[in-house]
Amino acid sequence: xxxxxxxxxxxxxxxxxxxxxxxxxxxxxxxxxxxxxxxxxxxxxxxxxxxxxxxxxxxxxxxxxxxxxxxxxxxxxxxxxxxxxxxxxxxxxxxxxxxxxxxxxxxxxxxxxxxxxxxxxxxxxxxxxxxxxxxxxxxxxxxxxxxxxxxxxxxxxxxxxxxxxxxxxxxxxxxxxxxxxxxxxxxxxxxxxxxxxxxxxxxxxxxxxxxxxxx
Length: 215
Known about the structure:
CATH topology of the largest domain: Immunoglobulin-like
Oligomer: single chain
Number of helices: 5
Shape: rod-shaped
Largest sheet: 4 strands, antiparallel
Radius of gyration: 30 Å
Order of helices and strands: EEEEEEEEEEEEEHHHHH
Strand content: 35-45%
CATH architecture of the largest domain: Sandwich
Low-confidence stretches: none
């Protein structure tokens, strides 16, 4: 700010120096925000005084990084800064990537190949992070290969034969189908339900990962 029509010596005062700092190099007045709150800066010369009410608002919430690349089974943290109130997190596709709030972080878990949008919000702001999950290939997924061996008789060793072709389906699609059978939502008395009900969620995800990466 610049004072004009000054008469005599110029001076300033600040009702709450903890909120802003106010300095004078006549005729320029510099006000710097320090913390959230309100204060009054008064400028005075020989002819009188003028007061300026200053309000410092909290900065908006930020989330970093703004995108993530994960492999299935991998997790990463999103750092939340300057949240206003309670932080919430949701995923557009939890089968691909799951989001969980943990203090000032959001933990994102890659569950299946695909893309999901994770939205982090507080009482005033929302931020969206794009999460891309890749399968990481068949190599190294020994558990998935062993568990999926029960699938080969009906679906073929590369997922291209049998009662239903699996080749070309994404990891998320295969997992969702397996989960429906395991929960009894799909053909509860059929052979698929009988097979899947004996597996944990982690084992079903390992099977889905293996089958989705068959070529």
